[in-house]
């Protein structure tokens, strides 16, 4: 069945047309009625004028009623739909309005409903995964604490395990809070001109001790001594920190950090000389709570992706020609 396309009109045009129709018809009716009353009924002009004004008033009321009714009904529909969204019912509607403004508003509300539905679904999945990740170290801490309490475990060894699990728990909570901060749709960040070369060097310096502990050295490859980019420096610093921390976990002896300014974008690359990423994992490394082999919480790389996309950039991962993992951030100039 062929669907008839409805031509959209603006509300102001519709009102103007109705007003012109009433005005023109009033002139015609006024002339006709005036002639009839004066010529055939011999009424004086004062009575004739009063009758004509009464007829015109009735016509205006009738036209106004139907016009107002045709405009308020769709507005009431949209109002109920907005209330449903506020109550958590994000199901889009299939309304189709003749008025362009109302149809545009309806499209916007449907778009918002779909976005809120996706956001709500992501948040539910996030809290389910977060509760699972929090439960694991807590249960481990509880078991070792009970072991010490009942005297069935060596206190020193159990205490070391408890401290390790506590550190993991603290890192996890920090990451969860950071994700909450990034995902907060009302959070505003201030962008500034940032030297990305200095930012990368600072990040490497902060993690130098951990790299030395694992016998890993940093190599730098910068096209320029100063690469300026307008971004949120706090967030970009966290993104680079996470990439370097991830590289330290898998590198054998070296991590290469590079930053180059291209024609229309800036590339930041973090490459390690480890065994690389398994083919089954390479398309999922940025998913929240997805852990590959030797993964910790499955949050760090998802934070990186959220930060980069929030800055209007993108990030890709692949295995380099030497076999290690290579993460490349691309930011618009």
Describe this structure in words.
- The protein is an alpha+beta fold.
- 59% of the residues lie in helices and 13% in strands.
- The longest helix has 50 residues.
- It is elongated.
Short recap of the structure:
The chain is α+β, with helices and mostly antiparallel strands and 333 residues long. It has helices at 11-39, 45-86, 100-149, 155-183, 196-206, 208-213, 233-250, 300-310; strands spanning 192-195, 217-222, 228-231, 254-261, 265-272, 314-319, 325-332. A hairpin with a 3-residue loop joins strand 4 (254-261) and strand 5 (265-272).
Which structural class fits the helix and strand makeup? Answer: alpha+beta
- Identify the CATH architecture of the largest domain: 2-Layer Sandwich
Task: Classify the helix fraction into a percent range.
Answer: 55-70%
CATH homologous superfamily descriptor of the largest domain = Histidine kinase-like ATPase, C-terminal domain
Q: Tell me, what's the shape?
A: elongated
Number of domains: 3
């Amino acid at each position: 069945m062929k669907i008839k396309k409805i031509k959209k009109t603006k509300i102001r045009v519709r009102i103007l047309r109705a007003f012109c129709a009433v005005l023109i018809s009033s002139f015609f009716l006024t002339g006709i009625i005036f002639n009839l009353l004066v010529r055939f009924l011999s009424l004086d002009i004062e009575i004739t004028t009063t009758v004509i004004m009464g007829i015109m008033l009735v016509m205006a009321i009738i036209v106004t009623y139907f016009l107002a009714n045709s405009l308020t009904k769709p507005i009431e529909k949209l109002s109920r739909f907005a209330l449903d969204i506020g109550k958590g019912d994000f199901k889009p509607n299939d309304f189709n309005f003749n008025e362009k403004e109302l149809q545009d508003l309806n499209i916007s509300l449907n778009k918002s409903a779909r976005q809120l539905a996706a956001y709500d679904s992501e948040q539910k999945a996030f809290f389910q995964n977060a509760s699972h990740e929090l439960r694991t170290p807590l249960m481990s801490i509880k078991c070792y604490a009970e072991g010490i309490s009942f005297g069935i475990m060596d206190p020193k060894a159990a205490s070391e395990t408890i401290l390790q699990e506590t550190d993991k728990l603290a890192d996890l909570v920090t990451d969860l809070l950071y994700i909450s901060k990034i995902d907060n749709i009302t959070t505003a960040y201030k962008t500034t001109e940032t030297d990305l070369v200095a930012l990368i060097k600072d990040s490497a310096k902060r993690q130098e001790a951990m790299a030395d502990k694992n016998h890993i050295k940093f190599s730098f490859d910068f096209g320029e001594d100063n690469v300026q980019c307008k971004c949120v420096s706090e967030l970009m610093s966290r993104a680079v920190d996470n990439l370097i921390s991830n590289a330290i976990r898998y590198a054998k002896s070296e991590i290469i950090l590079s930053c180059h300014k291209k024609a229309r974008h800036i590339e930041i690359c973090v490459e390690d000389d480890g065994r690389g990423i398994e083919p089954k994992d390479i398309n999922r490394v940025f998913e929240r709570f997805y852990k590959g082999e030797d993964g910790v919480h499955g949050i760090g790389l998802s934070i990186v992706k959220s930060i980069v996309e929030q800055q209007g950039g993108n990030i890709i991962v692949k295995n380099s020609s030497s076999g290690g993992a290579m993460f490349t951030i691309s930011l618009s100039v």
